[in-house]
Design brief:
four-stranded antiparallel β-sheet; single chain
C-alpha cells in the first residue's frame, strides 16, 4: 500500500490539510500541502494541534488485543521518559551513567536467566527483539564459521533450524545474512518444535537451533529442554555440537516469574544466547530489547567493534548506531519499581485474565481453543466444523472491530495453513472489567452472526499485523 493509499484510507482526501479556523493564527496559512514542505513556518501551537488531531485517528491501544507491545507506564515513568528522551545510547562518553545502567540491566537479566557466572556473561540493549535476534543469529553464524575454518573445512553454506511457526524476524535474518532456513513443520501432533526428528534437519552446516519461548501464533512454549536433549543425542551419535538460541521475546520475561522451575534458559548448557523484548512483557514503552550470551566466549570477538566517538573509545556490537537511551532507563526504573515480587504479581494478574477469557470463550459453542494462556498470556481459537454455519472468523473479526476491538484472524504456518484462527494477547492494562466488556461484545457478535440467514457481506480487505 502506497503512502497516498494509506492516507486516503484514513480519511485524508486530496493533497492538503485544512486548519480549523479556531486553531489558525493570524498570518498563517489555513491550507497546507500533504506531501510537500510548507512554504512558510508556523507557530509551534499550530503544528502541535495538527499532529495531535491526526493522531486521534489511531485506534485505542487498550482495545488492541492483537499486539504484544506495551502501551502504558506509570506517570513517574512518563516523567522520566520526558526528562531523558534526548539521550543517545551510543554516546557512552557523554552519557556514562546511562551506559552503566544499561550494563546493570543486562547483568540483572543474566542472573534472572541463570547464567553460570553472571560476571562472565555479556549482553547489550537493542531497539527491539528483532535486532536482538539478528545479533544472536550472527554470533551463531560467526562462531560456526570460525570453527569450520580452523578445521580447514568450507564455511559457505550455513543453515539455521527452527519451527515453521517462527517469527518473521528469523526469516529476515536468514535472507539478509545468507543463511539457509530449515523449517521443521508443525502439525496437530507436534504443534511446536519439540525435538521430534530433529536429526533430519541438522548437519555439519547447522549454525544453531532456534527455540521459541512463546510462539506468536498460539502463545505456547517450545520445550527447550527436550530440544537440548535431542541435540545431546545427535552429538553422541554424530559428534555435531549444535547450540541453541532462545527467542524469548515474550516468554523470557514471563517464565522466570510464573514458571521458575521450568528449565529453558542458561541452566541448559546448550543455550548459548537469549533475547527478549523489553517493550512486551518487560513492561517498557516500545523501542527496547535485550540479547545476552552465556559467556563472553559465546560472542565472537570479531563482532565487537571499538570505535572512537566524540572523544571516547567504546565497544559496540549493535546493528544500530545512534538509538534512544531513555527506554534503558525506563527498564531500570521498572526493575527497581517492581522487583521479583512485583513482576510476579503483574504477570500473574495478566495470566489470570488470559485464563478467564480462554475459559469463557471455550464455553461458546463455535470455538475450539489452541492453548489457554497458561504459558504466556496469549491464546488462539479456531471454529469447529459446522456445515450450517454461514460466517467465518474474518466476519467475526470485522464485527469486533465495529465495537472497537482489534482481534486478528489469520492462518497458521506452513503445513497447517488451512487452519484459520483468532488470537488474543493479554497485556498489562487489560483487566477483568475490560475482559468482561470484550466477552459481552464477543457473545453479541456471535449471536448476531448466528442469526443471519445468509453469509455476511464481504468486508473491505484489511491487513492486520498479527505478530
Amino acid at each position: 500500500m502506497t503512502g497516498q493509499d494509506a492516507s486516503n484510507r484514513r480519511g485524508l482526501r486530496g493533497d492538503s490539510v485544512d486548519l480549523n479556523p479556531l486553531f489558525a493564527r493570524p498570518g498563517e496559512a489555513v491550507e497546507l500541502p500533504l506531501f510537500d514542505f510548507p512554504d512558510d513556518e508556523m507557530l509551534p501551537e499550530t503544528a502541535y494541534q495538527i499532529v495531535h488531531d491526526e493522531a486521534m485517528l489511531d485506534g485505542n491501544a487498550r482495545l488492541n488485543l492483537a499486539t504484544f507491545v506495551g502501551t502504558w507506564m506509570e506517570p513517574q515513568a512518563d516523567q522520566l521518559y520526558a526528562e531523558t528522551v534526548d539521550k543517545n545510547m551510543i554516546d557512552k562518553d557523554e552519557y556514562p551513567q546511562t551506559a552503566a545502567i544499561e550494563e546493570r540491566c543486562w547483568r540483572m537479566l543474566a542472573e534472572l536467566w541463570h547464567a553460570p557466572d553472571p560476571a562472565r556473561a555479556i549482553g547489550t540493549s537493542t531497539i527491539g527483539s528483532s535486532e536482538a535476534c539478528m545479533l544472536g543469529g550472527l554470533a551463531l553464524k560467526r562462531r560456526w564459521q570460525l570453527a569450520r575454518r580452523a578445521a580447514g573445512k568450507p564455511a559457505d553454506r550455513p543453515n539455521l533450524v527452527m519451527s515453521s511457526a517462527v517469527q518473521v524476524c528469523w526469516e529476515k535474518f536468514c535472507n539478509y545474512f545468507e543463511v539457509e532456513p530449515r523449517y521443521v513443520p508443525v502439525s496437530d501432533e507436534h504443534p511446536v518444535l519439540d525435538g521430534y526428528r530433529l536429526e533430519d534437519y541438522v548437519d555439519e552446516n547447522t549454525i544453531g537451533v532456534v527455540a521459541i519461548m512463546g510462539v506468536t501464533y498460539t502463545g505456547a512454549y517450545e520445550p527447550v529442554a527436550e530440544i537440548a536433549a535431542a541435540l545431546d543425542r545427535i552429538e553422541a551419535s554424530t559428534g555435531l555440537d549444535i547450540r541453541i538460541h532462545v527467542d524469548g521475546a515474550s516468554g523470557a520475561m514471563i517464565a522466570p516469574f510464573l514458571q521458575p522451575d521450568l528449565e529453558w534458559d542458561f541452566r541448559l548448557p546448550r543455550v548459548a544466547s537469549i533475547n527478549t523484548s523489553a517493550h512486551k512483557y518487560g513492561l517498557v514503552y516500545p523501542g527496547l530489547g535485550w540479547v545476552l550470551w552465556r559467556t563472553i566466549d559465546d560472542l565472537p570477538e570479531e563482532l565487537v567493534f571499538r570505535v572512537s566517538y566524540l572523544g571516547g573509545d567504546l565497544p559496540t556490537f549493535a546493528l544500530n548506531f545512534s538509538r534512544p537511551g531513555a527506554q534503558v532507563l525506563l527498564q531500570y526504573y521498572t526493575f527497581l519499581r517492581l522487583g521479583r515480587a512485583g513482576y510476579t504479581a503483574v504477570q500473574a494478574a495478566t495470566r489470570d485474565v488470559a485464563l478467564y477469557l480462554s475459559g469463557e470463550i471455550a464455553k461458546l459453542g463455535p470455538f475450539e481453543l489452541l492453548g489457554d494462556g497458561s504459558d504466556i498470556p496469549v491464546f488462539a481459537w479456531r471454529l469447529k466444523a459446522d456445515a450450517a454455519r454461514k460466517w467465518t472468523l474474518d466476519d467475526l473479526s470485522a464485527m469486533l472491530r465495529g465495537h472497537g476491538w482489534l482481534v486478528p484472524s489469520y492462518p497458521l504456518p506452513v503445513d497447517l495453513e488451512t487452519v484459520r484462527v483468532q488470537r488474543i494477547v493479554v497485556r498489562n492494562g487489560l483487566g477483568r472489567n475490560l475482559a468482561r466488556d470484550f466477552l459481552h461484545d464477543l457473545r453479541a457478535s456471535v449471536a448476531y452472526l448466528d442469526s443471519m440467514d445468509a453469509p455476511p457481506p464481504v468486508p473491505p480487505t484489511t491487513q492486520s499485523f498479527h505478530h
